[in-house]
Amino acid sequence: MTQELIHQIALTQIPHIGDVLAKRLLEHFGSASNLFQARLHELASIPEVGKFRALQIKQFNNFARVEAEISFITRYQIQPVFYTDAAYPERLRQCHDAPVLLYQKGDAALQAPRMLSVIGTRKPSRHGREVCETLIAGLAPMGITIVSGMAYGVDIIAHQAALANGLPTIGILGHGLDRMYPAIHKDVAREMIQQNGALLTDFISGTQPDKQNFPKRNRIVAGISDATLVIETGLRGGSLITADIAFSYNRDVLAVPGRINDELSAGCHALIRNNKAQLVTGAADIIDALGWDLPTVKSVVQPSLFLTLNHIEKAVVALFNDEAPRHIDEIFRNSTLPNSEVASAVLSLEMQCVIKSLPGQYYTMA
Known about the structure:
The structure is a single chain. The protein has 17 helices and 12 strands. Helices cover about 45% and strands about 15% of the residues. The chain starts with a helix and ends with a strand. The chain has 3 domains: about 5-70, DNA polymerase, domain 1; about 105-290, Rossmann fold (3-Layer(aba) Sandwich); about 310-365, Winged helix-like DNA-binding domain superfamily/Winged helix DNA-binding domain (Arc Repressor Mutant, subunit A, Orthogonal Bundle). About 45% of the residues are buried. Strand 5 (about 170), helix 10 and strand 6 (about 200) form a beta-alpha-beta unit. The protein has about 375 residues and is α/β, with parallel strands linked by helices.
């Protein structure tokens, strides 16, 4: 236990000192320990602090709670990540209201080269579920990290799809790490940690999943990734708020369209109509929008390459029995395999230059 860690946690527990002001104080004093050692008049002289907040800092005395939190994170191997630490996620650090302190359970890289937040309604349609699973499967060869909020619906589907495709996934919580909400997602959370994922929160243990906590969680979801993908959401869905936050952070927002009269897609349509989100119809759209380069491969396919294809890839290649282009929907229809597996195979075959993509989501043999 170090004095600096004690003061870092204590800083987050002072009433009326939010993340934005806390960071200004850190910039002024250089460290949390220096901040707590400052004189009252030094604190009060800082703009937006004043005498009232300066007194809040000087009178803070709940260090027993801070030490209890340190005991908790030590016992359960939880890593505190402070705003000034090198391990703090750089994408999130760029956001003006980023949390001063994060608590991480699990080994996921918070600065992975490719990170995508996936959000949407808590009551998705069957089509929405399939779209979420298919898109993540299609992105699997890119080795991305999937981020979401562990909630019902699209959130947990995204986490499960990431696990199914061997991708690390990070769950952002609106409560402390001593509980899981919803409790039914405990097993998924354990599997995420076991498969190089993580749970992440800025709330200390004992914090309940109260309604007012989730806007803070949503800011992390929006800020920690390269982009936010909206699968299905209504006009009043909480996902729209998260998408707006991502847009305000100058992050890419992506949205999947639905039927024109589908209320579950009305929020996605609004984002696209208002030029806040790019339209997504497949994994390739996401890759293109974010400028994610596919691994370099040879431009000429040798016959021996086909010996290395797995059975799913071979089944997809067999659908190209002439030189005519095939639309992705036709490939899905003609295959007996799940769409998610076919989508992943199509992207893998494209990376290997076995097939090539054409405008309008058509594919042909390379």
